[in-house]
Amino acid sequence: MSELVRATLELYRQALRATFSSLTRNWTLIAAVVVLAILMFLITGVAMSLGRLGGFLLGAANAFAVGTLLSLVEQAVMTTRRMTWKNLWKAAGQYFWDVISIGFIVWVPLQFLEIGMHANPNGPAIVSAVLFLLFLLLNPVPEIIYQVHLGSPLDSLKESYEFVLENWIEWFLPLAVILTPFGLSFFFLISAQGGRLIGLDFLQLLQLSFAVLAQLFQLLGFSSFLATVIVLILTPIGVVVMMLFRGFLFSALHGSSRRQRQFRARSLGS
Asked: CB–CB of 197/204 below 8 Å?
């Protein structure tokens, strides 16, 4: 057990180190998140007045924003080159179809589920439970898109399921540690917000980062106005740090077994 703990802590140490090293080289990624956020809010305002057509427009805009973000994170995680504004133009919408296809496969059954649960008094609880299950089993889908490159959306979903079964302790422990001070109800709120598109919704990524930071500053006793201003500034940075850490952690977990990591930790300790 001590070897497992040591291997897991070493895994997080390396992922954190790689995250902040990459962040110093790729500050442009933070600016890119701000630009994408502004575009998404503008398009959301337009889409709200267009009815069903606006829904399609918003879905396409979201796939463009998330596809661009995943491509930029891929460059930051998988290479050591410094990111420039040229990378932003090259990355624009790169994983658009991956995001659209996976989001559609998940969205359609959920729509039927929600419609079917309208007359059921336990319907909201059942839908929330399904969203929570999706949040867990399909959580690493963004990393699978840009690191594994399976191409088929069904293969990506299957790979996510198998990855979580194999690495659920190491993958979810950081999230549990971060959210524990806020209580179990906050964790379920986060999972419900992020479950519908498994982290492939750009505005939800912003909302998740904002919610965690806002809760943190509230616990620290900051006034509501000051906390809101600080959280708004830190939210894009929070999104980038989260995505980079997830990327480096996934890369380390996907490329090794638990036994290999324990052996490596034992070698470092000797």
From this structure: yes
Q: Which two tokens stand for residue 69?
A: 């973000």
261-267: long-range contacts at Cβ-Cβ below 8 A with a sequence spacing of 24 or more? 261/7, 261/8, 261/10, 261/11, 262/3, 262/4, 262/6, 262/7, 264/7, 264/10, 265/3, 265/6, 265/7, 265/10, 266/3, 266/6
Residue 12 CB-density burial (10 A; 0-12 exposed, 13-18 middle, 19+ buried): middle
70 close to 97: Cβ distance less than 8 angstroms: no
Give me the percent of the chain exceeding a pLDDT of 90.
42
- Write down the pTM of the prediction: 0.89
Amino acid identity of residue 229, one-letter, is V
The mean pLDDT of the chain is 85
The tens digit of pLDDT for each residue in 142-164 reads 999 999 988 899 999 999 999 99
Distance of alpha carbon 255 from its chain centroid, rounded? 20
Which letter, b or e, does each residue of 130-158 get, where b requires 16 or more Cβ atoms within 10 Å of its Cβ? bbbebbbbbbbbbbbbbbbeeeebeebbe
Burial class (CB in 10 A: 0-12, 13-18, 19+), 120: exposed
Residue for token pair 């952690």: 249
Q: Comparing 101 with 190, which gets the higher pLDDT?
A: 101
pLDDT per position as a tens digit, 242-256:
999 999 999 999 977
Q: How many residues does the chain have?
A: 270
> What CA–CA distance (Å, rounded) separates 14 from 176?
19
The answer to which of 80-84, 118-122, 235-239 has the lowest mean pLDDT is 118-122
Q: Are 70 and 240 in contact (CB under 8 A)?
A: no
Instruction: Give the closest residue to 125 by CA, choosing from 139, 136, 134, 114.
Output: 114
Q: Is the pLDDT of residue 7 over 60?
A: yes
